[in-house]
Amino acid sequence: MSWWARSSLRTKIFLAFSALILPLLLATLSFTQLLVGRDAERGLAEELRTTGQVFETLLKERTARLRASSTLLASDFALKRVFATHFDPNDYDPETLASAGLSYRERLGIGLVWMTDEAGTLLAASPVSKRTGQSLATLSPLRQAMDSQAPADTIVEVDGQLFQMVAVPVFGPDVIGFLLLGQAIDDSVATQLKADTRSDVTFLTPSHVFASSAARGGGPPRLPGRRAQQTPFLQRAGNERLLSLALPVRAELTEPLYALVQGSYDKALAPLHGLQWRISAIGALALTGALLIGMLLAGGIVRPVRALVGGMREVLQGNLRFRARLDRLDELGFLARSFNEMVGGLEEREHIKDTFGRFVSRDVAEAVLNDRIPLAGERLSVSILFQDIRGFSLLGRTLDPAALLRLLNELFSEVVSAVEGEGGTVKQFTGDGVMALFGAPQVYVDHAPRAVRAALEIVRRLERLNRHWQSTGAVRLRIGIGIHSGEVVAGLIGPDARVEYGAVGDAVNVACRIEEHTKELGATILVSKAVLDQLGAGFELGATAEISLKGTRDVLPVVEVLALHEAETRAG
Amino acid sequence: MPVHLFICRLCLAGAIAVAPVAVLAGAPSLSGIVTSSDGRRIADAVVFVQSPVQTSKGAKPPQMVDQVSKTFVPGLLPVEVGTLVRFPNHDQIHHHVYSFSPAKTFELPLYKGEDAPAVLLDKVGVVKIGCNIHDWMSGIILVLPSAHFAVTDANGRFVLEDLPPGNYVVAAWHAQSKLKPEEAAQSVTLAHEPAHLDFTLPLAPARPRPSVHGVRAER
What we know:
The structure holds 2 protein chains of 2 kinds. By secondary structure, chain A is an alpha+beta fold. Chain A is 49% helix and 25% strand. Chain A contains 16 helices and 18 strands. The relative contact order of chain A is 0.07. The two termini of chain B are 21 Å apart. The interface between A and B is medium-sized, with 17 and 21 residues.
């Protein structure tokens, strides 16, 4: 028997629900992981891009401010006059230029002010620079401004620091020099960006970190390969995973410059984890619910089924009065009603059989009820037993009829019991006598030994009855039993209203004749030769005789049966 | 080296190298065409006698750079060294004319009309003038060593009148010329007939200028 077949209904229902809920739960968790995770990542990536855009806007605004400031400064006539002094070595005034640079730097709140002549040689710088007197013509914004005679800007590295730098020509009225203003891109810029956007920003090249809002520890952040740029990638910083985006920044450096924008991937996924916890909790609740529902459902099914099973046991033990009490309209209710109808049918049938059996033998009743008796009758080899009470006429005159009837009933009860004990059928009671058939309707091959054993049992039981009756002062009965074997036609005899089971054939008459001779031969049990031939060993036989049959000249050899050997009795 | 510096040196060299010749009345003229390297005729080029130096006799007539519609008129003014130049302002607004050029550094603070004093240009060279208020206003006064000079017309033509016969070094200048005047200079001998002399000047691209009301002014 499989494990499934052995499992209880409750387990099956629970497993069925679990089989439904668990995949759903897992699928929900997977989908949540997939969709929410993707959303969270997308959202974070969007935040990073926004930070990048904010940074770009910030750069543009700062550049625009620098351009506006420098253009205005370059138009200052006093500045032009000081600038123009460099045309005449005698008139050149670098100190005034430098102090003007300091003044402008403080006025604008910027990091760097440089002034060059029209050829790009640095005339003055604030803060003081060792480059003073050197040509800056190769420096990107200045080179562009010299080419275009118009303001130019770019990001450059000055002494290891990043600067947004704007170069503007100073006209007087032709170009008489260039003014360069620079604003640092340092940690404070990154920190300000982080305050505005919540994303960490680091400005770096593949080999150098210029500024960062993140704590400097654990080495510089890693840059992805060129292909991965503009695409978010994961980077680990300590125990935290960071989603990072490397945005290229236009600058004039020896290496490409990036703004590395980073946000905590784990924090972005925190809502997902919360959601997964909730879904898991709901799943656990659903499973518990499934268990409870399984128990309730199983209870609802198992209880009535158990009641029916109990009823079945009752019926098997013979209690046909049992009725299942299930007040429900579902299949179980139908089952219970069918069960009750079936048991009712059985009870009715048993009642009929019982009632019927009082008038016919139980075998006949059984055979009739089961339609085992063909209407046309059947030819069977049987043994016929006739039993009669000797001196019954005298008894009828001496005993009270009621007492006589009681004696008869007690005797016949034992006779019936003995006959049925050997599988025989009590065919009829003829006043003081009994006719019994062995081998019909229930067919037995050994009908003759059965009949003889039944006869010996009747005799034994009668002796017991006689002892009982004598102890109460009643009479002592004596009987004679004749047995013959032969072919008869057995079947239902009589009109429909009064039909009865009977056997017709010469063998019946012969058996009756043998019984009639018991008295004159002084034997209790006489059997014909046909019976004797079938008995086999084990029977103690008495004298043999020959009897004549009425209406014929035939004689029939008969033999008295005295007893059954012990071994046969036990075997019987 | 700035243009004004090399013109100074040029004038000095010319004065030493070439001996003066007699000036005769009714003398023939020297004419010609100034073209760029790509064959275009150049307007506003100044052709002048570099040597021998011949200055005007008597008082030099004062010259004028007017200011009309926020523009210097003329935009280019060649003058003989020692000339007084006035800067009348015919706009209804103030101007603040200045020059940081070594040939002449001066400043005429905010004024209108004829109030500003004349400026004596006493040094050979290029004097770039501007207005402190209007960045796009720009003009050039070319201070030349001699009284013989001419400005090319729209077809690049020039005529130097009343040059007496003799040997001359004649130079050409243009604001965009890549050559120094002495590098473009040519010697010419004048007899009694009109003579012809052409110049070819390689020009640098025009420099952008500060914008006028948002539009870049190209010169």
